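Suppose a colleague, Dr. K., hands you the sequence of a protein chain of 66 amino acids and asks what its three-dimensional shape might be. Before reaching for any lab equipment, you can write down a predicted structure in C-alpha cell form. Begin with the sequence itself:
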Amino acid sequence: ILASLVAESRVEISVEQDPLRQRPGDLPIIIGDAGRARELLNWKPKHPFEDTLTAVLNDCRMRAIQ
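The predicted structure, expressed as C-alpha cells, is then:
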C-alpha cells in the first residue's frame, strides 16, 4: 500500500524503517484475500483497490491545503 501511495505522490518521498518501532511479532508481509468473502457472501468490490488509494491520497491532499 505504501509503495502505491508513494508512486502516486507528487513529491519525492524516501521511506525509512525505524528499528525502534519494529516489534519482534510484526509480520514482514501481510497479504489479504477476499476470496472467502466473495464465496460465502457473494460479495464483490464496487471500486478497484487502486482507485480507493487514489481517493484517500486526494482527500489527504485536500486536507493539507485547508
